[in-house]
Every structure is written in C-alpha cells, then in structure tokens.
Amino acid sequence: MNLKISNPVLIQFFSAIYEYCQLGIFPIYSCIFFFVMNTSRKKLFLPMRAHVVLKSTAIKMSLFSFQDLLESSSNMLESSLEQSWKSNPNKDNLSLAEIYLDSVEQLIDGTSITTVKKKTNIEVAACSKPNCTNTVFNVSVSLGNSDAQNVTTAGFKQLENYWPTSDDERTPNSIIVSTTTDNKQLDSVELQIDFQLLKPRPRNVRIDCVAWDNATRTWSPHGCKWQGSSNEGRCVCNHLSSFAILMSRSQVKVPGINEMTYAGLSVSILSLAISLVIEVIVWSAVVKTSNSHVRHTAHINICLVLLIADCCFLGSSDPNNISEIWCKTLVVLKHFCYLSMFFWMLSLSVMLLHQTVFMFHHVSKNNYLRFSLVLGYVCPFLIVTITALANNGGAEGLYYSRDTCWLIYDGLLKGSIHTFFIPVGVIVFINIFSMGVVILKLLDHPVSTENFVEKTATRTVIRSVILYTPIFGVTWLFGFGVMALDLTSGNITFAVHYAFTLLNAFQGLFILLTTCLGDKQFVRITRSTERHSKVLNSFDIGFERKKGLQHTPADKY
C-alpha cells in the first residue's frame, strides 16, 4: 500500500511533534509517532530525527504501513503522556489535540479501509453499503442515508481528556468519535450514535450531545439532540463531524421550587401549631366517646410529628451552613418523624375501616391506644434504627447525603431512601383502600324514587374525600412520580414536582382546614363557645350597669 501525504495540516502536525520532542515536552520513548517499523515480527522504534524530513511535502508510505501509523497514533494517547498534551497552542492558536485529530482524520480519509482496525486507543471501522452501522469501542454509529457510501468511523480513547475546553459547567463523558463519508455532497444525514458513557449519569443530570465546531473552536449542540434518560447514551445528529457527550456537573433545577417549598413549610408549621392549640382548647368538649378519643389522639400526634419534621426540613434547607453532626441528626429526625406521621395515619385509617366494616364489634379505648402507640412510634423507630445500622451506623454516603441532608437514592430499589418510600407506599395504599370502603358504605343506601338521597350521598362522598385526603397522606402519591420521573424528561416531570410540592409543603394547612375548621363538631362547639362567651360578656356588662345604678351620691363620700 502506497500513499503520499502532502496535506499542510499533517505536515504542521509532524513539525509540532518534532518541536515538542526537541523541547523535551514529550519523552524520548514517545517520539516514535508515525515511525514504527516491523522487523522479524518485532517492532523497532527508531529515532524520529533519522526518518523525518520536516521540510518535505510528501512522505512515502513505503517506509511503513498504515497499521504502523495507527499503532503510533494510539501510543501517543497513552494516559502516561497526559502532561505532555497540556502544552501551549501553536501560532494559529490550535492545541496539539486539535492538530492531532485533524491529522489522523486526514490520514484515515486518504486510506482505503475495508476491515476494522483495532489498536489500544484508536479503532477504525468502515462500511460501504447503505444504511450501515460502524462500531468502535462499543460505540455504534448508524448512518440512515441510502446515498452515503464508504462510511468511516474512528474512535479515540483518552483524547477527550486532552481536549481544550473552557466549559466549567460540563465535563466530557464519552470518547471522541469521528465519522466521514466519501460523498461530500450530502444535503442532510440522520446519524444515530449510541455512546458508552464513561461514568454513570446521576439522576436528574442533563447530557448534551455535541459536535466540534472548528470555526468557534468549541463543542456545539447545533444539529445534535440527546434522546433522553430512557436512552441516555444515544445522540441523533443531522451532520458529520467529531462527536462527544458532555455531562452537566449539576442537577437540573425546577424553577421556583425552593421558594414554594419554604413558603409552604412556613405556612404548614404555623397551621400545625394552631391545630394543636385548638385541639387542646376543645379537647374536653369534643372527646366524649372512645372513638372520638382515639381519633383526636391520632390527630394530635400527626400534627406533632409533622410539625417537628417540617421544622427539621427548614433547618436543613442549606446543608453547607450546618455541621456534619447536625446534618446527620436532622436526617434521622426527618426520617423518623415523617414515618411516624404515616404510621399514625395508618392507625387512624385502620380504626375507621374497623368501625365501618364491623359496626357492632367494639374495641376498647385502651387497646386502640396501645395499638396506635406501637404502630405510630415503635415501627418507625425500628425502621430508622435498622436502616442506620445496615448502612455502617448511618455513615455519610451510605445512609445520608451531606449535599442534601436527606436519604440516599442510588437507583431503583437502591439506597436508603427506599426504607422511607416503601413503607409510605404500603401505608398510602391501605389508606386509599380504607377510603374506598368508607365511600362505598356512604353510597350504600336504599333505592329511592327521589333524587334527594343520591344528591346527599354524593355531597357526603365528596366531603369525605376532601377531608380524608390530607389526613391519610394520599397527596404523597405524587412523590412516587417524583421518584420515577427524571427531571430531564420534560415538562410533565416539572408538573409532577410542582404538584407534589404544592400539596405536601402545605399539608399542615390542609390538615387544619379539614380536621379542625372542616369538622362539624369543631365548628358547632366553637360557635357555642362564642355564644356562651357573648352571653357571659352581656351578663357582666349588665351586672356592672345595675351595680352602677345602685350607687348613691352619698357613696362617693
């Protein structure tokens, strides 16, 4: 195989390599680029100066084969030479990595390749049939254009580490892949690239498919589109170039979500405090039976643990400004209190379900209270304790994250967060089942020719759903949508996050509205208390007036 190379860029590359070798930027053993010979099945690395005429405009391939050039090109990408690549740009402001890629592309483009060429750091694949697929380093490149023939794809390991970049927000997460074709007149192409990510993509972190723009000397997303979290390594582009994947260094942010959360938690804390005060004030008036005693005991405990959990959530809103021990303490308290809230909700729904199904079966108040206390505090305590012990005593990075002061999520059924969401999911399912049974009982009435009964039942059902939804934690169903959907998926994910935050950050307010202000007994007692207070005030005023009329002038002296 003979090939003459007269490309000025390639000659410039030779000159740059020679200059770097002369200056000692590259070690002497690496200065064998493009000069490897096969002698008796043994590679003999000859000094570069003995075999290069830098001023020449042609280098004959009779001295060495394309395989030797590819081997030498691969050797130059070894990670041991990383510091050598970090040299200053040449007079044209081109880095060595850019000159290298352009030169090797020219070399490959001028060579007829029919089989896959595999080296340690470079692989070259080619195909001549329409709609073909090339694979290099587990990266598949498919060109869906019947007019494109002789498609050549080259993959370069390590080159992404040497590539110049001024992007502080994104980092390379794939090898650099270059694709060319003999047909330079293609109006449009559909190029599908399935990259192998170098590092796993963290959840809610966006990936950008980019191509190198020689004009601006930057990675440009123009003409390339990432296919989303379901195909996180796939890019579709409409042009040929050198491609790579850049991964963001931070997660996607939902606009305004933090402000909404802090405002909602503040309102929730105030509402829960009001709910506890109201419960204490009207306790003696509303607690007349065993059922009401158990129900209001559950309400008080739900408000109490949710109040503590919301305060801890606000306290850990800025993890960078709190110590590690405080972060860990707040995580444990949030984990326990939120779980305790749901277990108290479970005890309330179980009581309601028992009363609805077994109407004539009475359970004593003490038995209910013992069952509720074990369910409401012992169960979450055991879950939190076992989770912490199973994660190296609650170690950072295993049990909790220092960046968020919350539990760890490492993927589906991976991470300590699942010791929270799995119990919550089971409890919410049971609570919804209990609500369904109660609603069916409300709808179960004798057949009537009048519409009054149906209208009354419908209003009762709607009122029951509104009242039970916050106190049974049904709104937390959106949390499973938050866990399942990636923020890079689009607007539907943002909508789910907003719904979850709006409904649960203000949960304390909804509990106040439904269990206190929406309870007929509470309203009746409050009104009677007000009327009683007005009567007492009127009596006091009248008594004082009567007493004043009985005074005589002599009394003043």
Summary of the model, kept short:
Helix content is 49%, strand content 14%. With 557 residues, the chain is an alpha+beta fold.
What does it look like?
The chain crosses the membrane at residues 20-37, 262-286, 336-359, 371-390, 420-443, 464-485, 497-518. It is a multi-pass membrane protein. One of its GO terms (cellular component) is membrane. This is Adhesion G protein-coupled receptor F3b. The chain folds into three domains: 1-111, no CATH class; 119-251, Chondroitinase Ac, Chain A, domain 3 (Sandwich), CATH 2.60.220.50; 257-522, Rhopdopsin 7-helix transmembrane proteins (Up-down Bundle). A hairpin with a 4-residue loop joins β13 and β14 (218-220). Helix content is 49%, strand content 14%. The N and C termini lie far apart (135 Å). The longest helix has 34 residues, at 324-357. It is built from 15 helices and 19 strands. The chain is α+β, with helices and mostly antiparallel strands. The chain is elongated and about 100 Å long.
Properties at a glance:
557 residues, alpha+beta, Chondroitinase Ac, Chain A, domain 3, Rhopdopsin 7-helix transmembrane proteins, eight-stranded antiparallel sheet, 49% helix, elongated, disordered C terminus
